[in-house]
Design a protein that fits this description.
Blueprint (H helix, E strand, L loop, with lengths): L7 E10 L2 E11 L4 E5 L6 H8 L7 E6 L2 E2 L3 H5 L2 E4 L11 H11 L4 H14 L15 H13 L5 E5 L7 H16 L3 E5 L3 H7 L2 E6 L2 E6 L1 H7 L8 H21 L11 H4 L2
Parallel strand pairs: 3-8, 3-9, 6-7, 7-8
Antiparallel strand pairs: 1-2, 1-4, 4-5, 9-10
Helix pairs in contact: 3-4, 3-5
Pfam families: ABC_tran
Protein name: ABC transporter ATP-binding protein
Keywords: ATP-binding, Nucleotide-binding, Transport
Amino acid sequence: MTDEPPAITARELTKAFDGEPVVDGIDLTVEQGSVYGFLGPNGAGKTTTMRMLTTLTAPTSGDAAILDTSITDRDGVRSHVGYLPEEPPVFDELTGREQLRYFAQLRDLPPEPTADRIETWLDRFDLTDDADRRLDDYSKGMRQKIGLIQALLHEPEVVFLDEPTSGLDPRAARTVINAINALTDNGQTVFLSTHILSVVEELADSVGVLYEGELVAEGAPDELTAAAEAGADSTLEDVFLSVTTESSTATTAVADSNDGEVAGEPDAAATER
């Protein structure tokens, strides 16, 4: 056994908008070298959680750390993480290769080995022939590939991926899945948010299900499917549907017991993933 810190920890992590919690006191521990599958319906708080863990959004309360570095230390966390949001942050007027070189300069990466790494990733994602085209001519899938290379270029210890296979054809999606496997083989940690449950079943060492800002189920995929036991062929889809339906039913029952009290609309909170 080693004394290595967890890759990710969160304690009572909360984010509220206009008094309405979008993420409501979640606790997480993700070990180094693992894939954590983060599931939940739209509006559950997944993207807000990832933005807090990557220091892009400050929590309302609670705390979290990346490799024992508190998310209040933005520069410290930044050195450990790579992040692919659902919409990759790229500049349309740049070519694919220029975008990656620009990002490398922002990260102050050494030019020669980084240039080699860029060419390796471009080749791996079948982008070499298109690398000198402007990004505004790229398809959604091609832009997604550039965003993923950008998130991995500095070889971060912890990688946050928000829908990394979005817009990809099956061959490209398989390349991404293989790349994620290679990351964990290299000791890196992946926090993976996706709606494609088969990807989570294939890759994840542990899974958390977020519903209305609360972590309603967590564990290894086989443990969760066993707990949801709907028969021998129980899947993560069964788990997902079960825990979100149960939570929704419980919430409705509580609301019905409030003697007709009308809840206010959550405004900004409702738009958060």
